[in-house]
Amino acid sequence: MYAFEIERPASIADAASAMKTDEAQALGGGQTLIPTLKQRLAMPSVLVSLTGIGEMKGVCMSDAGEVCIGGATTHATVAREAAAHYPGLAGLASRIGDPAVRNRGTIGGSLANNDPAACYPAAALGSGATIITNSRSIAADDYFQGMFTTALEEGEIITEVRFPVPEKSHYQKFVQPASRFALVGVFVAKYADGVRVAVTGASEEGVHRWTEAENALSGNFSADAISELSVSADGMISDLHGSPEYRAHLVKVMTGRAVSAAS
Q: Cα(117)–Cα(254) distance, rounded to whole angstroms?
């Protein structure tokens, strides 16, 4: 580790002000950032902790019927407090990492980092969520822009995430046992106007939608609807845990399981 200053703002306005310097880095639960600092892959001179901002914590329902989650809300809190409103999302949160990670990591930190194998990006994209920052609202379809890349600008902070509640939903994750990340994860959500299918852990482009499955499932929400579909291995991640072909196979398998569980 190396020497740095830490700011502990008590409001979103104070946090935004502290982030105006080029030397500052926002700190949520620190589950990714702290190991990165230890390896000196990032070396900000100022960390702006978001964990003391009360207005960025908690789960509630909006008048529009959306589940609204503060950016500094931990995974464990989402798993507990979203269960009555959005079981598919709560189930996803309950399986992130281990208890230590779930009680420290935050939804805002996960979405800001946008790890290509993280779970929350699949939930946000699969739900058609809206990411709220200290300066604007960003649709999930516009927010995710590739591995570790998002639409966030310098100094921008995720203050809230709003999830439209589907009729049915489920998340299936094929776990990489050492990291607890998704080797492949699929979030399926059925809305009145159609089905959304978001895939994480599989592709070099990061989280993405499987539109062919969405079209098939919108007409027939059953695992049989995707039985004739195939997933190309082109652009899939290849590493010691799985080949591109294996990951392509898992995308279809996890999608079918998610649909069956949601039904």
A: 14
Structure tokens given for 50:
């978001």
One of 3.40.50.300, 3.30.390.50, 1.10.260.40, 3.20.20.140 is the CATH number of 168-262, namely: 3.30.390.50
pLDDT at 248 over 70: yes
CATH of region 5-164: 3.30.465.10
Angle between helices 87-94 and 120-127 (to 10 degrees): 170
pLDDT the model gives residue 1: 63
Which amino acid appears at position 223 of this protein?
A: A
Spell out the residues 6+ positions from residue 43 whose beta carbon is closer than 8 angstroms to its own: 2, 4, 37
Strand ranges (DSSP E) for 123-236?
A: 130-133, 137-139, 158-164, 168-175, 182-191, 194-200, 208-209
Mean pLDDT, range 158-174, rounded to an integer: 98
Q: pTM for this one?
A: 0.95
- Residues 99, 49: Cα–Cα separation, whole Å: 21
User: How many CB atoms are closer than 10 A to CB 84?
Assistant: 11
